[in-house]
Write a structure and sequence with these properties.
This protein is mainly β. About 10% of the residues lie in helices and about 25% in strands. β1, α1 and β2 form a beta-alpha-beta unit. The radius of gyration is 12 Å and the shape is globular.
C-alpha cells in the first residue's frame, strides 16, 4: 500500500447529511472534491455541533467519480 500523500480535514454538518447513518449502511462515501485531494490521501471528517470532534478517518480511493455515481 502506498504512503499517503496529504492529510485533510473535512467538516460535516449532521443537520444536512447524517454521516452516522450513512457509515452504518456503507463504508464508502462520495464527497464533493475539494482542493487538491487525490487518491491515496487521508481525510479526517470533523463533525460539528453538538459533537464538535473529528470522528472518522477515511482514505481516498478515487479522486475522480463519474457524475452518475454522485
Amino acid at each position: 500500500m502506498a504512503a499517503y500523500q496529504e492529510t485533510w480535514v473535512f467538516p460535516c454538518n449532521v443537520r444536512f447529511f447524517d454521516i452516522f447513518e450513512h457509515f452504518a449502511k456503507s463504508n464508502t462515501v462520495v464527497w464533493k472534491k475539494r482542493g487538491s485531494v487525490h487518491t491515496g490521501d487521508e481525510v479526517y471528517i470533523y463533525i460539528g455541533a453538538p459533537y464538535k470532534e473529528i470522528r472518522f478517518k477515511c482514505h481516498v480511493i478515487a479522486d475522480e467519480v463519474p457524475e452518475d455515481v454522485v
